[in-house]
Amino acid sequence: xxxxxxxPAADGGVKRSFLQQAQLRAxxxxxxxxxxxxxxxxxxxxxxxxxxxxxxxRALFEDTPKGHLSGAAAEASGAGAAETVGGGEGKRPSxxxxxxxxxxxxxxxxxxFEPSRAELARAIxxxxxxxxxxxxxxxxxxxxxxxxxxxxxxxxxxxRDNPEPVEGLDIVALVEENEEHNAVVKAVRASFEGHFDExxxxxxxxxxxxxxxxxxxxxxxxVVADTLALDEWRELLERFEGQRRAFEAIETHATxxxxxxxxxxxxxxxxxxxxRCLDELHAALPELAARRTAALLEETGHATSVLxxxxxxxxxxxxxxxxxxxxxGMQSELAERGKTIEDMYHLMAxxxxxxxxxxxxxxxxLGSQLTALSALVDDVAAGQEERTAHFAESIEASxxxxxxxxxEVLASSKDSRLTDGDTELADAIDLVAGLDEQLHEVKAxxxxxxxxxxxxxxPVTRYDEVEDLEAAMRLKRNLWHxxxxxxAQVDEWNGAPFDALDPELMQKEVTKYAKTVSQCEKGLAPxxxxxxxxxxxxxxxxxxPVVVSxxxxxxxxxxxxxxxxxxxxxIERGEGFTLGYLLELRVSEFKDAIEAVSTAATQEKILEELxxxxxxxxxxxxxxxxxxxxxKDVFILGGVDDVLAVLxxxxxxxxxxxxxRFIGPLQKRVDDWDKKLRLFSExxxxxxxxxxxxxxxxxxxxxQDIQRQLPNEYKQFDQVNKxxxxxxxKTNADATALKCATAPKLLEKxxxxxxxxxxxQKNLEDYLEMKRAAFPRFFFLSNDELLEILAQARDxxxxxxxxxxxxxxxxxxxxxxxxxxxxxxxxxSQEGERVGLGKNLKARGTVEQWLGYVEEAMVKSLRAExxxxxxxxxxxxxxxxxxxxxxxxxxxxxxxxxxKEVEEVLDAEGxxxxxxxxxxxxxxxxxxxxxxxxxxxxxxLERKALVALIxxxxxxxxxxxxxxxxxxxxxxxxxxxxxxxxxxxxxxxxTVVRQVNTRTLYGYEYQGALSRLVVxxxxxxxxxxxxxxxxxxxxxxxxxxxxxxxxxSVKDLAKGIGRQCVVFxxxxxxxxxxxxxxFSGVAQTGCWTCLDEFNRIDIEVLSVVAQQLLTIRQAxxxxxxxxxxxxxxxxxxxxxxxxxxxxxxxxxxxxxxDNLKALFRPVSMMVPDYALIAEIMLYAEGxxxxxxxxxxxxxxxxxCSEQLSQQDHYDYGMRQVKxxxxxxxxxxxxxxxxxxxxxxxxxxxxxxxxRFLAQDLPLFEGIIGDLYPSLVIPPVxxxxxxxxxxxxxxRAGLQVVDRFVTKVIELFQTFNxxxxxxxxxxxxxxxxxxxxxxxxxxxxxxxxxxxDPRFQPVNTYVFNPKCITMGELYGEFNxxxxxxxxxxxxxxxxxxVGLTTENDEYQWVVFDGPVDALWIENMNTVLDDxxxxxxxxxxxx
Length: 1437
Description:
It is built from 54 helices and 28 strands. By secondary structure, it is of the alpha+beta class. Strands 1-8-9-4-5 form a five-stranded mixed beta sheet. Strand 10 (625-627) and strand 11 (635-637) form a beta hairpin.
């Protein structure tokens, strides 16, 4: 304070220096800090008190044991045992009384509490919140107190130093945010909830009482009292008595944890319920017993009174006898009812139910009365027979009198007045009525007497006189009543308006009276009264058809005129138009004419209805109009099946109407409709034809390049296009079918458009044909692919994707680094091998021109490479030479030198066989050198070239060995001449291929670094047959089972002699046009085509194919340079060849026509020599002990086929063997330290174990153990993939099953072996899940950065091939539009193939559905070494 004079409390007007201000602020800051400390200490103290209070409350709640105490134990303050609801026992600490009282009561339909659970919880929460709120309201913050503002916010030099309001600690927020405080509060709430849950559990003990109470509310014993049996009364009394005792036993007080439950209100509500029911039963039971006693006493008294009397006369005696019989039969029932009443009173006595004394006396009197009645019945029955005999005599006398009376009445009925037609009708009706009355009296008496006889058990008399009387009276009654009623009916009809007559009722009445006349004629004697009725009925009977005809609703005005003309009189159809009026006109005489008019009217109405149906069907029928390719304001007609169905149906209806002879008035309308429908049909045909052509051409002429190259056609198309777009826009605005298609001059416009489009299409075909003629390899592309190329003609590099389809193995051309470059410097194979194409090769001019230059450059470059390789061969070491040249040159030149060296030995003088032996030694040494090189480090291209070279060298070695065995000593020997031999002939300065007497120039088609087929003696014979066939202008037809090398033999022969070979998988969707296009391309390029599964083509197409091939052969035979094919003159290269392969074992194959068979030389392909093939392939893969390993492998497959179970998916064929051999080579290269045995066994295991069933695995392991005893196969470490597969299962929510994870790994192994994989197993076996887990695992491993190149992201394209048609799967031509629609599989495979060139990611096309022969056969060339999907439009993917 001294340092800050004047004091801080002084008037702000005092002026202070800066130093004084600073000192003052420092002092105030220290005071504020002190006040904060005080606040903190207060808060800590208060918080400690709150925590202490809450902890005590928590302890109180948690230390109180849960469960409930019985009433006595509760009153003893916890001294007794505490019984928990769950059945456990524990001791309540003494002195712990319940904290809260909860009233338990019944509210509407359920047990409720007062206060409720929510109210109690809210009260406890409020109390705990009040603890905290009190800190703020009662204590507050010292720092924020106004008394200290002079320190917390001082005024310095007239200005408040801290203008912001000074706030102390937010005590409430600090406490509420304290974790310890919140934990205790949470524990208190949880403990409270737990204790209240025990209260609810205790209330469960009261639930049965609640259910009883609710059930009793619906009980009304007064309603059911009369229907209850005695046992049911007893059960009810016992039930409600038990309920009353149970309700009285309900505890009113119970301690449940911290709660004292008070159920007094509940007991007060429940207890009256059973008592009410008991009171109602106690009141109803005596009343019911008394009523039943009184009723039984009355019945017995009445019976006693009746049976004590004596009957007077027959009637009384019969009634007395009936009552006696009834009472006798009721004796046992009366006794049973008496017994039941006694039991009811015994029951009342047992349950203390009070009965009135006079009711008890009545019960006693009832017993004696029942006994007396029983004795009386016996006495009366004893004298009954005597009384019966007495009264039977009286009945017989009455019967005689009845017969006499009936005879008299019958005589009266023969009164002559009833048969006289002159009798007055009223008199006759009265006479009949009198006789009817007497007849009724006689008949009633006869019935009464018969009843008496039945009661007295006497034979019932038959009264013939009464029956005769009744028959006679019935006919006479019908006769006279008919005369009377018919006259009244006719009078009514004659006077009624004609339009009100009911022809059906008239017909019915006439029929009824005609029947009466017929009956009277048969039953009555001839008389003069009946003809009167008959004449009147017959007269009117002829009038009914006329009425029916004239009441026909189909009659129109012109029909009435025809009727008037027929009867010769006008008919007034006004108010006086009645039946009587028509009778006066004697219309019945013209019945036939009137009926004819009516029939015509009916038929005309039917025809009108048919015509109305036609009009109705067309009235609302509309075309389905769809948007075209999502283009704005461009539309096409959708499906017209509904329209065609209506057209056909209505045309039939119109022709039906035209064929009717009743068409008269409708003739003009029907003729108009006939013309209209004919016009519609013609217009629709033209319309759809225009749409087909327009849809095909529209996508073509959208390309600017096509517009530029076909300007005239584009101009014509543009005119049609404008008309088409206008027509379809108009149709879209109003799609009424009939209105649209019958518009004036529309047919002529559509016909003109069709003619124009046909011309454009023909010109387009000619244009494409011209392009194909200029570059024949375009024949191997579909129209769409060729148009795609032509549409991008200005961008040469856009042709790259299609090169592989035009050439055997040119994947792409080397345009350099510039995307706009037109300079072509080289070509690349699919394997990445590059061959230079010389200088000055440019992609200029039309696409067909520069592609032709590329083809020429390919041939020149390969020929130059071949010549250079030939020159380099002798100057270099063989291995170095092989590495320094492209694979195709290496293989061909090696063959040339082999032929040259062998023939030098054959031509040498001396020991030729010995010379061959020396050469054989040299060849073996060369092979070993190559095999060792293959086992070392090589580039991919070098390895492919050397493997192919080894394959050829091994075959050459075997040929030399054979020649030595056969002691061949001349090049003219057939053993040598039959081989495929290669020479560089100086006279032509080119490579020449010879076999037997055939000679052909090498083709120089670039083959890349493709693998070569292992040549066996079977292959040699096949090649010899095929080259011989080509020599005479025929094709070759290898036939045999799957896996025998039919297609591969043809392809490898083509590779060997440098020919392009186009492999096409045939299907039943191919047509003759598609085949003609293929043959045209083959003829002009001089290449080969191999048609797989040729006999799948339809027989109709094969017949045309035979003619096409015959035309080509005739041109070949004539050695023509050009010939006419399919109406066009084309070039012919003599090197062309057509080969077909067939599998004769498949069902459903077409038998080739004889004229087609004659054009092919057949070759039977058998199961190949597996051991030889395996040996050569192993050798080519670098295995030195190839022969021994091959023999063991073949032996293993033989044993597997014999000993393992026979399963459809087990495969021991050539494709499986080849995949194992290739895989063993990769295993050997990846593990150079492993022995050759182990490499092969591991490959066999990885290729075969995934497909074997569990029971076959031990047998397979046993076979390997027998073939390779004591050989230990180290396991392959798939730990990385295994862990990833397990993680994938967890991510997918699947259980990690070891066997399933193993299957995932096996699927991965199989993918490493085969290009196509099939998972086999039952539904729900996990096939799809296995694939998905492998996909997830491989993608995840790649994302983790693994260095294994096999683990890449996997993209899948999944669909079910069985749920769609073949057309939807692989594509089809629309029969209506002729537009090619791509299929799901073809689209997905094309997409996947395109993506493989962009990155290393896997693309899996998954046919997720059952396999059948329909769809899998189209995948043949996809899954074999061709790896090509062939579509029906000629596209090859």
